[in-house]
Amino acid sequence: MTQPYTATTESHKTSMLSRKFGQEIINYFSGSPLNRVSFLRSSTAFLRAALPRSKFLLMRDLEPLAASKTTLAWVGYETVRELVGNPFDTEEEEFLRGYDSRVEIPTLVFLGMNEEGTGGGGGGESFEFEGEGGKYVGGPCFALDVTEKGSLKEECEKVQEEAVKGAEGREFRKVRLDLSLVPSDAAILAQARSLLDWNNRNQFCSACGARTVSVHAGTKRICPPSDKAFQKDPEGPPFERPPCISRKGIHNIAFPRTDPTVIMAIINSTGDKVLLGRQRRWPKDFYSTLAGFCEPAESVEDAVRRETWEESGVRVGRVVIHSTQPWPYPANLMMGAIGEALPGGEEIVLKHDPELEDAQWVEVGRVRNALQESTGTPDVEVEGAIEGQLRLPPSTAIAHQLLLAVVNGFHLAKL
Amino acid sequence: MTQPYTATTESHKTSMLSRKFGQEIINYFSGSPLNRVSFLRSSTAFLRAALPRSKFLLMRDLEPLAASKTTLAWVGYETVRELVGNPFDTEEEEFLRGYDSRVEIPTLVFLGMNEEGTGGGGGGESFEFEGEGGKYVGGPCFALDVTEKGSLKEECEKVQEEAVKGAEGREFRKVRLDLSLVPSDAAILAQARSLLDWNNRNQFCSACGARTVSVHAGTKRICPPSDKAFQKDPEGPPFERPPCISRKGIHNIAFPRTDPTVIMAIINSTGDKVLLGRQRRWPKDFYSTLAGFCEPAESVEDAVRRETWEESGVRVGRVVIHSTQPWPYPANLMMGAIGEALPGGEEIVLKHDPELEDAQWVEVGRVRNALQESTGTPDVEVEGAIEGQLRLPPSTAIAHQLLLAVVNGFHLAKL
Fold this sequence. Notes:
2 copies of one chain form a homodimer.
Chain A: E1 3-4, H1 10-13, H2 16-21, E2 25-26, E3 34-35, H3 44-50, E4 55-60, E5 63-66, E6 75-76, H4 77-84, H5 92-97, E7 108-114, E8 127-131, E9 134-145, H6 153-164, E10 171-172, H7 183-201, E11 213-215, E12 220-222, E13 226-227, E14 239-240, E15 259-267, E16 273-279, E17 290-293, H8 300-312, E18 316-327, E19 332-341, E20 356-363, H9 364-373, H10 398-407
Parallel strand pairs in A: 4-9, 15-19
Antiparallel strand pairs in A: 1-2, 3-7, 4-5, 4-6, 5-10, 7-9, 8-9, 11-12, 13-14, 15-16, 15-17, 16-20, 18-19
Helix pairs in contact in A: 4-6, 9-10
Pfam family, one (chains A, B): NUDIX
EC number (chains A, B): 3.6.1.22
Family (chains A, B): Belongs to the Nudix hydrolase family. NudC subfamily.
């Protein structure tokens, strides 16, 4: 499902960068058809006009309403109106002045504008907004959490029922394991899932412990300076909360979190073998590239060298970044790299870090065969799998793309 | 101060990847001399043995104790013993059983082992630890927050006084703006600063609002299940806290946060101009590459295209990642990319997002001259600066390295 970069003009296909580096790989979960128009999220005028013309992706326990195994389902404003109301009728400043932490607000996130209009990919009714920077035309899309819980339980249940009514096959669908959604819908789902999960897990301020509230259409959470829940005089002003360091200075806690990770195809110093490893919980014969989290203040290149050494004992020299892939479980951004082991640093030692059950140097030819003949996700049983036959991740995984780059001579290519 | 990758063997310098991609750029703030041995952070036996033989980097309000403008200062265990105590005498499990949120604990973070021994870079006494994966030899290094506040105020002040005593020039030094630390110390500082800042800003659980506590030597924070502060019977068991979603399932809130950002040199479709922009607060004539934060579930390549369009109106096709740079203000990881504008997509429109005051297509030759003759940080006044002469960031900034790659023909090179 990974697609080569689709150029919008013919000449781009033979651009200078393409000539040198080959076509760009757009990995699964990236390449969204939506324009995020991030600068419009703080425009109440835009959001107010867009909301009733929008399509909504409903999520229950972080799983989306799907039309089928391969496509998401969308509902119109009429289905969610009672739950959502008109949150953008009030300017943010005014809303914050009246903030009351006792009132539960459904999590509603603006995803972007589908510029291809009304068809497919969740685009709402085509809509035109005249902003300071020009005209923005497209179908606005939101994600909405309809998990039945708390004081919104009944309203959420009603929306869930309404949403599947009369539409055969529509259901809230666990999509994680099969990666069967079409790539454009997978990219939209990844964005929706990451943002709803982040909102859910950041209901309290990590700096002071007080309730937070979503602003900018679900893409920012702040620790409001006052709260009616603690108002002493019902006629007086809202209760002032104690000072919080999240209200001043440079910090990141108001914004969604994305965790950079590294994933790397390591070739040996003679270029004929690739380092593969397997986790204990994976099915027999399933291997992949090594991977791990970037540490604070560590470059991607350093993280590749550290993680490879910690997990396998192999020492890596030169590292080149190949492509990247968002992975919304929970909120990772995978930096795919090709690295080269240092001569004399190729001995495998698994005992530093017990994360891997095994790591091996595998001949490039064997990797090529497995990429063609024997791929799948570790969670899906394969019928008729031959014992001892190497199994590798599917083309939707960046691990597959990195290995493909190596077997295609990424490191040797004369361009 | 950016150094080419220093290969540990001669043959690495002419490795397959190097032949194709040139030498790796190790950007300022990366390339730390410390081995993080991340798997040893959960070994109390290791930490207990290492602590008294360690060197400590003291930080006050996130600024380090420095020996000079270019080097950090380190103190031994004797200087911090009274403040720090013996936190690793107790196994983590036991410590958590007796957790009391009323007791303030100084923030102490294990940074890693200096494998070059005792000299420079903060290495402590050379120390050998026999772990399951083998012998780990080096000088262990910690960072310690000695900001005078709360119940630890007096002890922190004492450590501060003791640390500067008799050592001329030692002071807590604001190092942000001048980037004058030697690269190895800058990388250590970046790690220390990121981790202390994250600990400071995550004293409360973002999922439930309760107090969190540092484990794994400052590299993880958890929301403990019980707390003596709420104990009803002083003889009874510690108070059980309500369930918290941070105690189960896959999530990231226990771990340090790093924010991926993109920074990109965009070339026009004929390859003779580079897109530069300037922020309002920068001095006149100072320009740099465009940059911005990655969004949730967005690849680096997509983020480069989105940010470039939002800030400048320019539409970008192919994107190639060049190198990366940690930036510890507060905790960014900059993904440096070279991108190519689409033919017909080169018109500059600043009005979408008001972030930039100006953006311009600048001829490659003019960029080359400025990189050689007129660089500096935007915060430092330059004496004798000629009005109208383009000024660009210094070689310590990845923006400089990206522009250098372009003027050196990165996108055109025949390898």
